Amino acid sequence: MRQAYCRSAGEDIRCDAGNLKSGGYWIRIQIPAPFNLMPDYFDTQIRAALANTGLQEALDANAERRIEARLQANAALPNHQVLRRRAHSVRASTLAKLDEYLEQFITKAQLNGLIVHRAADAAQATQIVIEIARENNAHLVAKSKSMISEEIGLNHALEAVGLRVVETDLGEYIIQLRGERPAHILTPAVHLSRVDVGQTFHESLGLPFSDDVPTLVAAARQALRMVFLEAEIGITGVNFGVAESGTLCLVTNEGNGRMVTTLPPVHIALMGIERLVPTLDNLALLLTLLPRAATGQKITVYTNLINSPRRPGDPDGPRQRHLILVDNGREALRQSPLAQALLCIRCGACLNACPVFREIGGHAYVGLRGEISTYPGPIGAIISPGLFGQSEFGHLARASSLCGACKEACPVDIDLPKLLLRVRAGGIKIDPGRAKQTLPGLVAIGIRAFTWFSIDVRRFRLAQRMLGFFSRILAPRSLWMHLPVFTGWGYSKDFPRPDLRSFRRRWMSRQSAISVIRESRDSLDQLSETSGDESSDYQSLATRFAIELMALGGEFTLCSRSDLAQYILKILHNHNIGSLLSWETDQLPNSLLEAIQTAGIQVSHDLDPSIRAGLTGTLAAVADTGTLVMTGGPGRALFSSLLPEVHIAILRTSDIRESLPQVLGMREIQSAASVVLISGPSRTADIEMTLTIGVHGPRELYVLCLDE
Ligand code: SF4
After folding, report:
1. What b-and-e string marks burial along 551-581, b requiring 16 or more CB atoms within 10 Å of the CB?
2. How high is the pLDDT of residue 88?
3. For 144-187, what is the HEC assignment?
4. What CATH number labels 77-167+230-328?
């Protein structure tokens, strides 16, 4: 990146220029104060963010990796655009009948044994949590990441009545230690370097300074382990509630969400009233799109489906589960022209895609009085004024170039630019007639000319060619440098050389490239379907499952029942492990535990955090995503697949299903108290986007597949 200072009206304007990876080009200009219409606090934060080179690097690294991962994941998904539109319509139709679905959801959840509360605003929501904590004589609360808890200021309210609240998502834990607010809805510590985190751990936890990411992650794992085990209350958000079954769905990569919903005796789930989907089939659709948009993953590592509290005979799970449905301005927003913002599934993709967010980061999005907005980026610039007031947060919508990158990135196809314009217009629908009357004369002529060219395909193409031609002539840098009006600009930055091909032609060629990728993928699928040799390794579901699992960092072994014990003993021997936290005998293949015990391994079925390996069976697996499916219940402790460093799972080839909807349609998914979908070992990328395995859950996952 280069910088130059240009003289303009007697003031310095700083101009930065650089090339985007995509081949595009950007220029950043700091506008002198007299021409700046932003409120003071917002303006100050923006200037500070732009001057912070460390922040700029962190935001660029985050955005580039996330965007690349998202594009790759979406390109590999057949019919991505169709699925996206379907998701939009599912979310929109749910919102349109929200009252009906809420009633159905609440009835089902109560029948399942959940205690359901409704909170009209932040004060009511925090008061309900405080009362539950008092009734249960709680002192320590373990929290999983939840934007709605940020929105209602939950930590502050709980700490004010003497409760100790510990954030357990690594990024949230780091910023809690620093007394900061999240800088991103998905990666709260995106603004910090590994050195910052090392210094924070050194000062707050008394650990020797280190900037080694695995060392820092291991330190957090150790510090938080006792919190999970000792907390009397676990608090989480809810990604989706399923109306037909009363199910709560919660997704996390680290495993802290599983810990918080499994270990403490009381679980409180906070959910915005809009986070509903009608059916489990709809849920499968959104679970397909959410992780791809958020992190480029096919599926999040842990997907928890929670139906009820612990039942008689269950070895784990909280004895009380509370669900607090929070309105806090949502119903009013639903009745407003900004209602579409409620379709949001909080993936964070629009933040990463936004060229403004990439420059200023989340902490620059501040209200009129300087308070950091809970929701930053394009969606934050709509949700914040929508929920908390146009006068307080309406100015955030000015921090947008309206380039449309946010809409393109959004997995539920929210028309964010249109909503941003509505916020700019004061939160009301723009009346085109009124807008026309107030336009200055030259702009009106320009718009009329543009309209004339753009409503006819032939005229539009002609205009594109003409513009391409003229800009090509004007583009050479030498020419710019010799025009007096541009002197100085030509020295400070390269003007992009326009492509002779029109945007339309370039777009068409990109589309055809994408369709080639899709066609080859379809051919591959067709080949598999039509060849008819179902026993072939290449075609089998087991092989597809194995490929996906190994891509996620898991290990796959196909074995016979008679070899099973030997494989397990080998894994334990390789890790020098002498005891096993296991499901009960009747939930595993006959005589397996006896054979293991005979070899000198101690087997326990009770919660023991010192045991380093866990053994479980599985209900099913998903070939498309390399996912294991486990239901809790008598003899099937979920902590066996959660607490140990090494998880060994036994699967039968006949239990592998093709796709997520097939698994979510299984009867056992709705009847179990709790279900977990596991896709590889626990992971995080919360420190400098460095992928680190084993933050809270197991570091290693071995699947022993019985070929039956
Ligand atoms: S508006 Fe769309 S892209 Fe942005 S966070 Fe919400 S779902 Fe994701």
Report:
1. ebbbebebeeeeebbebbbebbeeeebebbb
2. 98
3. CCCHHHHHCCHHHHHHHCCCEEEECCHHHHHHHHHCCCCCCCCC
4. 3.40.50.10420
For range 225-235, the mean pLDDT:
97
- Pairing mode, strands 164-167 and 140-143: parallel
Q: Assess whether the C-beta atom of 289 lies below 6 angstroms from ligand 1.
A: no
Distance of CA 398 to the CA centre of its chain: 25
Exposed / middle / buried, residue 513 (Cβ in 10 Å: 0-12, 13-18, 19+): exposed
Taking each helix axis from N to C end, the angle separating 377-388 and 416-424, rounded to the nearest 10 degrees, works out to 50
User: Is ligand 1 within 6 A of the CB of residue 294?
Assistant: no
Q: Which residues pair with 6 in a beta bridge?
A: 13
Residue 608 has phi, psi (to 5 degrees) of: -140, 100
Read off the pTM. 0.83
Residues comprising the chain, all counted: 708
Supply the pLDDT for residue 411: 98
Residue 350 tokens read as 């629009």
> 77-167+230-328 with 503-706: one CATH topology?
yes
E strands present in 462-524: none
**Going by C-beta distance under 8 Å and a sequence separation of 6 or more, which residues neighbour residue 352?**
62, 63, 66, 67, 70, 358, 409
Q: Does the Cβ of 345 fall within 6 Å of ligand 1?
A: yes
Domain residues of the chain, as ranges? 2-35, 40-58+337-432, 77-167+230-328, 456-496, 503-706
Quickly count: other Cβ atoms within 10 Å of residue 486's Cβ.
13
> Rounded CA gap, 174 and 170, in Å?
6
Segment 329-350, tens digit of pLDDT: 999 999 999 999 999 999 999 9
Picking from 310, 142, 302, the residue whose alpha carbon sits closest to that of residue 235 is 142
Backbone angles phi, psi at 705, to 5 degrees: -105, 120
Average pLDDT over all residues of the chain: 87
Q: Which CATH architecture has domain 503-706?
A: 3-Layer(aba) Sandwich (3.40)
The DSSP output letter for 364 is G
Calculate mean pLDDT across residues 21-43.
Answer: 56
Top CATH class, 40-58+337-432 = mainly alpha
Q: What is the 3-state secondary structure (H, E, C) of 374-402?
A: CCCHHHHHHHHHHHHCHHHHHHHHHCCCC
How far is the centre of ligand 1, averaged over its atoms, from the C-alpha of 380 (Å)? 9
Neighbours of 478 (CB within 10 A): 7
Ligand 1 geometric centre to CA of 377 (Å): 10
The answer to whether the CB of 410 is under 6 A from ligand 1 is yes
The one-letter amino acid at 680: G
Q: Which residues pair with 267 in a beta bridge?
A: 234, 321
Residue 202 tokens read as 């050194």
